[in-house]
Specification:
The complex is a heterodimer of chains A (185) and B (107). Chain A has 185 residues and is an alpha+beta fold. Chain A has 4 helices and 11 strands. Chain A is 18% helix and 34% strand. In chain A, the strands form 2 sheets. In chain A, strands 1-2-8-11-10-9 form a 6-stranded antiparallel sheet. Classes of the chains: A alpha+beta (185), B mainly beta (107). The structure holds zinc ion. Chain B: This is Sarcosine oxidase subunit delta.
Chain lengths: 185, 107
């Protein structure tokens, strides 16, 4: 990164959206740094050290570092790094290990889906088994929601983080809020 | 929903996350520049399209992103087995009762 470069301000497309009914909250999450990281198995240790978060190697798992930086396993050689505070690209620049890192901070928009109806609402459009035995806390996966691709991370028993492409954010928002209303008992 | 076992994710996942990617174990002739038109046609265009067992490539495109191989029955749409790309072709035979036997795993 060029010294003194100012990060462009990020205006999320659905910043002002709010959705709350009994048992369910859908909230747009603040902007964050995101990196699409690709590397082979031999370089996982060095990159974990550089990022200060252990890159998970088990499918569907995630890790969180001391600073709150998150590393999500997406594939055998692919991770999504999320950090609300510090740019992971700066730390990766120091890593000598062979890797590919692409800054996708502006590509994604994140939503928090929480409450006792969170799982049922997501299951309206996500075909994966989101029961806790199959998708426990800290589980994460690239999957689909309706007609779009998303990355889903379970942050708590009743709290999910959903990452989707910026141009799909309105679709994801509308899909989830419609599903929530339709599923209301 | 049809579930497909991804050998990289190590579990069954819904078919919506996958995409078909053509017949498996089609070896590219080497050197390809020296083969004649008939050999190129056979390599590039001609596929088995069997009724029954077929060896295919699939991609877990909305999951881990990996390509892998699968043995599927085109009549029942049942996936008999899946294995990682680059692994040797898994031999499968039908037994007398209409079931499937993985070679090397016979009862
Ligand atoms: Zn997979």
């Amino acid at each position: 990164m060029v010294d003194g470069m100012t990060p462009a301000p990020r205006d999320g497309v659905i910043n002002e959206h709010r959705f709350a009914i009994p048992g369910l909250d859908i909230t747009p999450l603040p902007p964050a740094f995101r990196v699409s990281l690709r590397a082979g198995p031999d370089d996982v240790g060095a990159l974990s050290q550089a990022l200060d978060v252990g890159l998970p190697v088990a499918p569907k798992s995630s890790a969180i570092g001391k600073s709150g930086r998150q590393a999500l396993w997406l594939g055998p050689d692919e991770w999504l790094i999320i950090d609300a505070e510090a740019d992971p690209m700066i730390d990766l620049e120091k890593a000598k290990a062979v890797h590919s890192a692409v800054d996708i901070s502006h590509r994604n928009v994140a939503l928090a889906i929480s409450g006792r109806r969170a799982r049922a609402t997501l299951e309206a459009g996500c075909p994966q088994d989101l029961a806790e035995r199959a998708f426990p806390v800290a589980a994460c996966s690239r999957t689909v929601l309706g007609k779009i691709e998303v990355v889903l991370l379970r942050e708590g028993p009743e709290r999910f983080r959903l990452e989707c492409w910026r141009s799909f954010a309105d679709y994801a928002w509308t899909f989830l809020s419609e599903a929530a209303l339709a599923a209301r008992p | 929903m049809l579930l497909i076992a991804c050998p990289y994710c190590g579990e069954e996942r819904p078919e919506l996350e996958f995409r078909h990617a053509g017949e498996a174990h089609v070896a590219r002739p080497d050197p390809i520049a020296e083969i004649d038109d008939a050999a190129f046609e056979a390599f590039f265009f001609l596929r088995d399209n069997p009724k029954g067992l077929i060896w295919e490539r699939w991609r877990h495109v909305h999951g881990c992103g990996r390509f892998f191989n699968a043995v599927r029955d085109t009549v029942s749409d049942r996936f008999i087995t899946t294995y990682k790309a680059g692994e040797v072709r898994r031999e499968v035979v039908r037994d007398d009762e209409g079931g499937y036997q993985l070679k090397g795993e016979e009862r």
